[in-house]
Design brief:
Radius of gyration: 15 Å
Number of strands: 4
Oligomer: single chain
Helix content: 40-55%
Structural class: alpha+beta
Strand content: 15-25%
């Protein structure tokens, strides 16, 4: 779901502010967001701080998502 980042649109966001929408829910604490104007992607960490969505954070979010899925399957089976 990578979309191109536009410098011109990001200047618009500098004046208006980013309008983030949730694009992926990793688990109950971590989500991924994308700005509707400039397509900048961010995520929040387990402490609630916003971080840019780079390769490292994508791998962390994928691992957290897989753990959450396994936990949900285990709780349903029990």
């Amino acid at each position: 779901m990578k979309q191109s980042f536009s410098l011109l649109k990001s200047i618009g966001c500098a004046f208006k502010g980013h309008q983030y929408v949730v694009t992926h829910v990793v688990n109950e604490r971590v989500q991924e967001y994308c700005c509707t104007g400039c397509k900048k992607e961010i995520t929040n960490d387990i402490y609630g701080n916003l971080q840019p969505l780079d390769a490292l954070n994508e791998r962390i979010n994928k691992a957290l998502n897989e753990l959450a899925i396994k936990k949900n399957r285990r709780s349903i089976a029990a």
